[in-house]
């Protein structure tokens, strides 16, 4: 599956199928949240949260790709990611794009 954040793929003629999306809400357990709070006092990267968001992005992307595969898409174009806090220590990651098929020129 080709995934791009542009609205085209060089050298390909595309036929739009539909929008596809994937999302997940992830959290860290309370112990990690307390340690992150202490880390904010002294500064620096909150690596547990970085890992959580990277994991969430991967899961959301897989769910979007799975939806595109069900539609027999060849690629997903114009991909965008978004995040939001849904609770203390929990974040939602959503990814969406346009599923397309390649059209063979005559």
What does this structure look like?
By secondary structure, the chain is α+β, with helices and mostly antiparallel strands. It has a single domain, classed as Hypothetical protein apc22750. Chain B (Translation Initiation Factor IF3, 2-Layer Sandwich). Helix content is 35%, strand content 42%. The protein has a 4-stranded mixed β-sheet with strand order 1-3-4-2. It starts with a strand and ends with a strand.
Write a concise synopsis of the structure shown.
With 106 residues, this protein is of the alpha+beta class.
Mean pLDDT: 86
Q: Termini separation (Å)?
A: 24 Å
CATH fold-level label: Translation Initiation Factor IF3
Rg, alpha carbons: 18 Å
Q: Beta-strand percentage? A: 35-45%
Class from secondary-structure proportions = alpha+beta
How many H/I helical runs?
Answer: 2
Count of beta strands: 4
Helicity, in percent? Answer: 25-40%
Q: Give me the CATH superfamily.
A: Hypothetical protein apc22750. Chain B
């Amino acid at each position: 599956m080709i995934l791009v954040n542009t609205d085209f793929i060089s050298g390909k003629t595309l036929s739009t199928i539909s929008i596809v999306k994937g999302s997940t809400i992830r959290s860290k357990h309370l112990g990690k949240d307390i340690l992150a709070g202490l880390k904010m006092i002294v500064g620096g990267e909150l690596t547990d949260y970085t890992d959580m968001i990277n994991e969430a992005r991967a899961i959301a992307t897989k769910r979007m790709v799975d939806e595109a595969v069900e539609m027999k898409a060849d690629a997903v174009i114009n991909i965008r990611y978004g995040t939001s806090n849904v609770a203390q220590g929990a974040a939602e990651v959503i990814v969406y794009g346009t599923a397309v098929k390649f059209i063979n020129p005559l």
